[in-house]
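During the first year of the project, the team set up a workflow for recording each protein of interest as an amino acid sequence followed immediately by a discrete structure-token representation. This format lets reviewers and collaborators read both layers of information side by side without switching files. As required by the reporting guidelines, we include two representative entries from the current panel. The first entry is reproduced here exactly as it appears in our internal archive.
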Amino acid sequence: MLENPDVIESEETKDELYEHYRFKVDAGTDLLRIDKYLMNLIANTSRNRIQQAAEAGCILVNGKPVKSNYRVKPLDIIAILLPNPPHEIEIIGEDIPLDIPYEDDDLMIINKPAGLVVHPAFGNYTGTLVNALTFHFQDKKDKNGNEQRPLLVHRIDKNTSGIMIVAKSDMAQVKLASNFFEHSIDRKYRALVWGDFKEDEGTIEGNVGRNPNDRLVMTVFPDGDAGKHAVTHYKVIERFGYVTMIECQLETGRTHQIRVHMKYIGHPLFNDATYGGDRILKGTTYTKYKQFVENCFKLMPRQALHAKSLGFNHPTTGNYMLFDSELPADFTAVLDKWRNYAKHKEFIED
């Protein structure tokens, strides 16, 4: 009876770092260990991988975590979260400098600079964060003498800077991935966006998915007819008249979420070429102002987005950990220019 269970939900895409499945056990299914049951259903997995997910509390039956020896019963609702296996391309270690503010046996914290791609992919097989991590991990072994390897838990866009977490064991990856999937990770970003806000804070809700007309960019589906549920909370940090510095807290973690949500409400990120922020969207028509903005673009030739802080429960100790990162030099330079401009110019709404 394993061939045709009722698949309630299945999320397994190449651009995600984990897979999420929900099954309803067929009414005629015999009692069977859940690790064997799931191994027969999920392609390209192993019993050990499923058992690790169970040990990490990532297999739920009727809403409650179960161990790998649990025997499935007819009509059980099973949910499982699995980190995606590594892509089958050879990763060559490269001696690329890394800013590592914290590291222990289970994980490491990275301050990723803007311009660094996280994972090798078409067009970027070298010079990535994973190439740098592979070099960093070469010849390293864990406390049991096993070779260590970097395991991604989440990603940051190439031209976004800031805090990232990398797992150093399969168990740590599974537990951290579960926290990201369940939205129990505290993530705050700083962004410079076009325009001013009437309110000091707000929330943006709108499904985010790939634009059907351009698969390289994301879009918001406000009616919820496509895409994945996405929620971004924001609050104003500093106003400059034509642009505003905000803090964004992610409740979900969709691809380009902050960038596409901000465009959706009419406040594209400053110099975000993908979502229209690389043009003068607010301000005067004076030549000097145009030159001022273009100089800012040159100072920060990327979207003005920085992953400022990351808070989570340690996968082994359970202790809450919070890491914060300073804004990079290009970001602070642009902010200083806008502060100076705001002090000396009278803003006129177009």
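The second entry, processed by the same pipeline in the following quarter, appears below.
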Amino acid sequence: MTIKNITVIGAGHGGKAMAAHLGLMGAKVTLYNRTSSKVDAIRLRGGISLTSEQGSPQGFGELHLVTDDMCKALEVSRLIMVVVPAFGHAEIARKMAPWLRDDHIVVLNPGRTFGAIAFSLELRKHGCRTKPVLAEAQTFIFASRSTGPAQAFIHRIKDAVPLAAYPAQYTEEVLEALAPYYPQFIDGQTVLHTGLNNIGAVFHPTITLSNAGWIESTGGNFDFYTEGVTPTVSRIMEAIDRERMRVGDALGIQLVSACDWLDLAYASKGADLHQAIHNQPGYRGIHAPGTLNHRYIKEDIPMSLVPIASMGRKLGIRVRGMESIIRLACIIHEVDYWQVGRTMQSLRLKELTPEEILVLAGGHRMPLLPASEVPQYPIAI
């Protein structure tokens, strides 16, 4: 049976596009945003105008409810689509914790790296005792932008987006709930696969930092993925991508290369990463960030690159390329992203073996141990 009532959490670039898109497809959509004044225009209009380069769908996406009350936002819907930057996940989990039900399905769009594990920890930390199904997408399904107070634009809808529940035994249930609206979601195996296949960790920080001077001198007035990705920048990304792939090998899982990901998501092919990116028409016209104080660093360093590098360090993999990018970000923002980001310590994975981590993500029962020897696992809900 199709779930008609859907709540979208977040009214930024992605949240507005998803809310309008779901409304146009016939869902009864509730849009939550923590700051009421930012969605006043949407509330007054009763929806969001959506345009698209692909031409389908577009029009006025009617919304059922626009609110800054989390209780009301969760009460009316069973399917909850969280569309906020990953550095906002902890706050959203805290606000959700008192109101979540066992029948809720919560999808992080996306989780970035190990987002579902971190979200689960935050829910329990703030007293959640129900057992909703929690899942994460590997990447956001749209390339989209907010174009006005109650307007959104979709550059491109990805052809396939891997998704995994935490633990993985619930993935099929989540895919079935999403299928009437987003058949593009496919089985992503486990949250280790979706998290380590987070290609934004490779693309966003590297391109942004490599073009720091151009961003500051032009205010981002250039095409991020075409003009910003030169052969040299591509080689840096390829080096970081190789490190990411080696982390997967050490953990015992097969990851997708950045080139193969572009083929999967956009059917974009090339002899190397530079060519594959430039052959993706959906990237054309997407401007660079107007400032270095942007989520491509503030989100993708602590919530994407740090956890991958931290996992690499745990497994004995040399991740000097990643460490270099992280260090540059720390210098630019005067922030120790190793302290504020997701690490094996903060995720309670530091003392686990690779086999134990795989079991945790897969949701299979571990052998019983004496209480004194039981590792402190994150509670998968």
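For the second entry, the following points were noted during internal review. The two ends are 23 Å apart (CA to CA). Residues 364-381 have pLDDT under 50 and may be disordered. Both points are flagged for discussion at the upcoming steering committee meeting.
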